[in-house]
Specification:
The chain is of the alpha+beta class and about 400 residues long. The protein is built from twelve helices and nine strands.
Length: about 400
């Protein structure tokens, strides 16, 4: 053992006290937001006015909000799950990667996309698939900074995930309808550290894949298991603002004392219920609408149903949000998926299983690479740093770089 736990005692106590204070402050703030939610639940004129004021006065670098899709359902709606007895097809994809290790014998990275076709309401067993891709030294610009960031590889993985989903939706376009594509992330895709031409190209590619899914007649949803958005809370903050309110704080986390949309809807939604549908108000969503208006991202919050305290966010594109029957299909199918193994979609769990690259997989891959190199007379060697680490650890290894 190298970690001296006793030296962390005071820090852990301080951590617990700080979190306790935050919980108390959040509880008070949450009561205010609940009151505002009830007060303005169907006051569409006030909602429109608050959104207009926010757009004019808030700091656009921080301002992100939610706008009701329509005036059919109140802000505080808790909509029960529809009947899920219809037959349907659910296709999910997920991705994993091995990051390049500059101290390894050979420089490469690997992306593996896995997925499942789930035949809802039928006796056919699920079908699984995976698609690995390796990139080697010729594809990597090597310098002291290694020339390739983890974010670049993550972007490649993300685009291959939705690309594979679009491809499988096309392959199964004649399958039992509705046909739902699921991804384990937000639909309003924006690369980490966004900005720049490369990020713009990635967003354009993502949007094209969304369009392809729509053109194949598929539905699309992104499932976010532990969402941290404050879009609805920001709308409520604008609705409850008085003349002393500092609009430059709107959208900043410190102004809401840690309260998120999840905290709000945890008190509203019962098992299986969803919120009303909102449109994401943000510059990123404006960009999506410019590429394809049907791709503008909407969302609802969902209580998956078994344990009661879990709240997820489900992103859907505008072409799904505008069709009440399509929203009902997504709601029913996602809740049903979450009943199979407990508060998380079964199809996404299986897609992750097909995508993940385990330690033994990586060891076998490294062995295959060494054999291939030896056949061509290429010898392998670790860097001195890596060799000394393995010697110091007495042959123990620490697995890194798998997402």
């Amino acid at each position: 053992m190298t970690l001296e736990f006793e030296k962390l005692t005071l820090e852990l106590e301080e951590m617990a006290l700080n979190i306790s204070e935050q919980y108390q402050q959040r509880h008070k703030r949450l009561g205010t937001f609940r009151h505002t939610l009830e007060r303005f639940a169907v006051n569409w004129a006030a909602i429109d006015e608050a959104l207009a004021r926010s757009a004019a006065r808030a700091d656009q670098k921080f301002y992100r909000s939610a706008r009701p899709l329509d005036d059919v359902e109140p802000l505080n709606a808790a909509i029960p799950p529809p009947d899920a007895s219809v037959q349907a097809t659910v296709i999910a994809t997920d991705g994993s990667q091995i990051m390049p290790d500059r101290h390894a014998a050979f420089l490469y990275y690997l992306i593996n996309v896995g997925g499942i076709i789930y035949h809802h309401g039928a006796d056919d067993p699920p079908e699984v698939f995976s698609s690995p891709r390796i990139a080697y030294l010729d594809d990597i610009q090597l310098d002291d900074e290694f020339g390739l960031s983890s974010s670049q590889i993550s972007i490649e993985r993300d685009l291959e995930e939705i690309g594979m989903l679009a491809e499988m939706i096309w392959v199964y376009r004649e399958a039992e309808q509705p046909l739902l594509g699921l991804v384990d992330q937000r639909l309003l895709y924006w690369p980490i550290g966004g900005g720049g031409a490369a990020s713009g190209r990635a967003v354009d590619t993502w949007c094209r894949r969304m369009t392809e899914i729509r053109q194949c007649g598929g539905l699309l949803a992104g499932y976010i298991d532990r969402p941290g958005k404050v879009s609805v809370v920001t709308l409520l903050q604008a609705l409850g603002a008085d003349e002393k309110f500092d609009w430059k704080l709107l959208g900043k986390r410190e102004s809401i004392q840690g309260t998120t949309d999840v905290h709000l809807f945890r008190e509203i939604l019962g098992p299986g219920q969803r919120s009303r549908v909102f449109i994401d108000v943000s510059p990123a969503n404006e960009r999506f609408a410019e590429v394809d208006p049907a791709n503008q991202v909407c969302f609802f919050y969902l209580n998956p149903g078994q344990w009661g305290q879990q709240i997820a966010r489900v992103d859907i594109p505008m072409w799904v949000a505008q069709e009440r029957a399509a929203v009902a299909h997504v709601h029913a199918l996602v809740v049903d998926q979450c009943q199979i193994i407990g508060d998380y979609p079964y199809a996404l769990t299986r897609a992750d299983e097909m995508a993940v690259v385990g330690r033994r997989d990586q060891e076998e891959l490294n062995f295959m690479i060494e054999l291939a190199m030896q056949r061509h007379g290429i010898e392998s060697s670790l860097t001195a740093k890596q060799g000394s680490k393995e010697l110091a650890r007495g042959g123990k290894t620490r697995h890194q770089g798998i997402g």
